[in-house]
Backbone:
């Protein structure tokens, strides 16, 4: 299996990979950042949602900067899909966490 191209990596991060990447970052924060561990649950969720939005918007910004796709002023087909991917990822990630059986949760 070949490594993804720059374009493919950006499309993954700007789409279905947004929540995956945010989840990996949260896992690292949980493991190594004591300040993050001390936060109330609602603030941890807020960090996750913001990461889910920041990843696809950041990937889209990189795509525009490197002329892979999109345009700065094109909200409908460049920026809205990134925001939608972030909100969708955050929603499904939060839903899974809220509905995960107790043995799957880490206390």
Residues:
């Amino acid at each position: 299996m070949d490594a993804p191209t720059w374009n493919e990596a950006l499309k993954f991060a700007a789409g279905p990979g947004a929540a995956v990447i945010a989840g990996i970052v949260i896992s690292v924060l949980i493991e190594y950042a004591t300040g993050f561990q001390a936060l109330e649950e609602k603030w941890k969720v807020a960090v996750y949602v913001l990461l889910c939005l920041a990843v696809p918007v950041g990937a889209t910004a990189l795509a525009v900067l490197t002329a892979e796709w999109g345009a700065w002023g094109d909200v409908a087909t460049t920026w809205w899909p990134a925001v939608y991917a972030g909100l969708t990822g955050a929603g499904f990630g939060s839903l899974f966490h809220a509905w995960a059986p107790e043995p799957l949760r880490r206390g």
